[in-house]
C-alpha cells in the first residue's frame, strides 16, 4: 500500500497539517473529495469508497470524524505503484480521515491503517479533535513520520511509539536510542520484560444488539464479541488460545460438542494468521499490558435477555399512566447488574409518581424519559413498575410515534453465544508457571424495544 501524502484538514476542508511522502501525485486532488462526498450524500449514494476520475477515496468515520483513504483505480502501466494516500480530518458535520490513491491497492489494508492511526492519536491525545490537533503539531509530524515511511506503514503500535516519542505538555522529547522492538520481527513487544508474579487476564465480552417490534417479534439481532487481555509475563512468551470453534471441531471430528461459528473475525497483529488458517490455532506473542486480541460477530437470532412489556394509557388533557413489566429471560443462576430501563414519556409531562417492587425510578426531563434502575436482576425474575404523569390542560400535538424503550445491563459469567475458552497455554523458554484468569461478560449493545 504505497501512499504519497497524508493530510489533516480543518472543518472547512483546508489542510491544517500535511505530510508528503513520495512527491509523485498532485496534492490538489484533495480539493475534489469534499464536493464529491456532499453531492453523493445529497443523492443518497454515499459510500465508504468514492471515485473521482482516476482517483479513489476510501474513508472511515470516527465519532464526528470521517477517515478517508483512496486506493488506486487505474491499472495503467504508466502509473504503476503511484499511490496518493491523503489523510483528512474535519471536525464538524464533515470530518473525514481520507486516503487517496491512483493505483490498485489493498483497500482493506488502507482501512486498517487508518483505524490504527486513529487509535495511536487517541493514545496520545485521549480524544481526536480539532483542538488536540492544533495543540500538538510537532508531535503529530513525528508520529506521521514513524507511522509511515516513503508511503508504507511502519510502526503502528502505540506502546512502542511511546518509548521513543514522548510528550510533556505540548513539547516533544526524543530518547537517544530507538527501542529494538521497532526493528525486530515482534515490533509490538520489547525484550527484557520482567515480573515477579506472572499473570494473564482474559475477558470475553459480548454486546447484544437487538430491535424488537411492538408485537414482540425480533426484527434485528446480532452479537458483537471481543477477547481482551491484560498480560503481565516475563520474557518473550508464546501463548496458544483454544476456543470451542465450530470449524475446528468439525476438522477434528468432534461435531457433538457445543461449538460456536464465529463470523467477521479480526485479530491483533500479534496473531499468526497462517497458523490460524491452517489448523484454527490462535498462536501469538502478546504485547505487554492491555490489548484486544480479537473481535468477532454472530448474525444469529437472539432471544431478548431482558424482556420489557409496556402498557401505556393516555387520558386526554389530564394524565398518562404506565405499567412496565421487566423479566429476565436468561439462566436463573445468572444475575444482571446495574440494569437501566429508559422509558420515553411526553415532553410536556409533569407531576411524576412511581411505584415498583424492585429498584428505584426517577424522571429525567432533559431526556423526556422515565429511568428505572435495578441494581441486581436475577434470571427468571419479573419486576413491575407503575408510573403516573400529569399532562397540561391544552394537549400538545402528537408526534409520529413514541421512541423505543432502551435497556442497559451487564451479566457477568455469562455469554449469549456460548463461546468458551477451552485452554490458554503459556510457553516460555525459562519454563516459569503463570496464572491465567478468564472472565465472561454479556452486556447490552444497541438494545431497543418498540412501543409503537
UniProtKB/TrEMBL annotation:
Question: Where primarily located?
Answer: membrane
- Provide the alphabetized UniProt keywords: Coated pit, Membrane, Protein transport, Transport
UniProt protein name: AP-1 complex subunit mu-1
Q: Does the keyword Protein transport apply?
A: yes
The answer to keyword Acetylation applying to this record is: no
* Record family assignment: Belongs to the adaptor complexes medium subunit family.
Name of a matching Pfam family: Adap_comp_sub
Gene3D superfamilies to which the protein is assigned, alphabetical: 3.30.450.60, Mu homology domain, subdomain B (2.60.40.1170)
Report the GO terms under cellular component.
Answer: clathrin adaptor complex; clathrin-coated pit
The record's subcellular location field reads: Membrane, Coated pit
Q: Which domain of life is it from?
A: Eukaryota
Q: Name one GO biological process term.
A: intracellular protein transport
- TM regions (residue ranges): none
Q: How is this protein situated with respect to the membrane?
A: Peripheral membrane protein
InterPro entries, per database record: Adaptor_comp_med_subunit, AP2_Mu_C_sf, Clathrin_mu, Clathrin_mu_CS, Longin-like_dom_sf, MHD
Residue ranges annotated for the MHD domain, each copy included: 197-450
Amino acid at each position: 500500500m504505497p501512499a504519497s501524502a497524508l493530510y489533516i484538514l480543518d472543518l472547512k476542508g483546508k489542510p491544517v497539517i500535511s505530510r508528503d511522502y513520495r512527491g509523485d501525485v498532485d496534492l490538489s486532488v484533495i480539493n475534489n473529495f469534499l464536493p464529491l462526498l456532499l453531492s453523493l450524500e445529497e443523492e443518497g449514494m454515499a459510500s465508504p469508497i468514492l471515485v473521482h476520475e482516476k482517483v479513489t477515496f476510501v474513508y472511515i468515520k470516527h465519532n464526528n470524524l470521517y477517515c478517508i483513504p483512496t486506493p488506486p483505480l487505474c491499472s495503467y502501466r504508466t502509473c504503476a505503484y503511484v499511490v496518493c494516500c491523503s489523510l483528512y480530518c474535519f471536525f464538524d458535520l464533515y470530518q473525514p480521515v481520507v486516503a487517496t490513491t491512483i493505483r490498485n491497492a489493498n483497500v482493506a489494508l488502507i482501512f486498517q491503517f487508518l483505524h490504527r492511526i486513529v487509535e495511536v492519536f487517541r493514545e496520545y491525545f485521549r480524544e481526536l479533535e480539532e483542538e488536540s490537533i492544533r495543540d500538538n503539531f510537532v508531535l503529530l509530524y513525528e508520529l506521521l513520520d514513524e507511522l509511515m515511511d516513503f508511503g508504507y506503514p511502519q510502526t503502528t503500535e502505540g506502546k512502542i511509539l511511546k518509548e521513543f516519542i514522548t510528550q510533556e505538555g505540548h513539547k516533544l522529547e526524543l530518547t537517544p536510542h530507538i527501542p529494538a522492538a521497532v526493528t525486530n520481527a515482534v515490533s509490538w513487544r520489547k525484550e527484557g520484560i520482567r515480573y515477579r508474579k506472572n499473570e494473564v487476564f482474559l475477558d470475553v465480552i459480548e454486546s447484544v444488539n437487538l430491535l424488537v417490534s411492538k408485537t414482540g417479534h425480533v426484527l434485528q439481532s446480532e452479537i458483537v464479541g471481543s477477547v481482551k487481555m491484560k498480560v503481565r509475563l516475563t520474557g518473550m512468551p508464546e501463548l496458544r488460545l483454544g476456543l470451542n470453534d465450530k470449524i475446528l471441531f468439525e476438522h477434528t471430528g468432534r461435531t457433538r460438542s457445543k461449538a460456536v461459528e464465529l463470523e467477521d473475525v479480526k485479530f491483533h497483529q500479534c496473531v499468526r494468521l497462517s497458523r490460524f488458517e491452517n489448523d484454527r490455532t490462535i498462536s501469538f506473542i502478546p504485547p505487554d499490558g492491555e490489548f484486544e486480541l480479537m473481535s468477532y460477530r454472530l448474525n444469529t437470532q437472539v432471544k431478548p435477555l431482558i424482556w420489557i412489556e409496556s402498557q401505556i394509557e393516555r387520558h386526554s388533557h389530564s394524565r398518562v399512566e404506565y405499567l412496565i413489566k421487566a423479566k429476565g429471560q436468561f439462566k436463573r443462576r445468572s444475575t444482571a447488574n446495574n440494569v437501566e430501563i429508559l422509558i420515553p414519556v411526553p415532553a410536556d409531562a409533569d407531576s411524576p409518581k412511581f411505584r415498583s417492587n424492585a429498584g428505584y425510578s426517577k424522571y429525567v426531563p432533559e431526556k423526556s424519559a422515565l429511568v428505572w434502575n435495578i441494581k441486581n436482576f436475577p434470571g427468571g425474575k419479573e419486576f413491575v413498575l407503575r408510573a403516573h404523569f400529569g399532562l397540561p390542560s391544552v394537549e400538545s400535538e402528537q408526534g409520529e410515534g413514541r421512541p423505543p424503550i432502551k435497556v442497559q445491563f451487564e451479566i457477568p459469567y455469562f455469554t449469549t453465544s456460548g463461546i468458551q475458552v477451552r485452554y490458554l497455554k503459556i510457553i516460555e523458554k525459562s519454563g516459569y508457571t503463570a496464572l491465567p484468569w478468564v472472565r465472561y461478560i454479556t452486556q447490552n449493545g444497541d438494545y431497543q424495544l418498540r412501543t409503537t
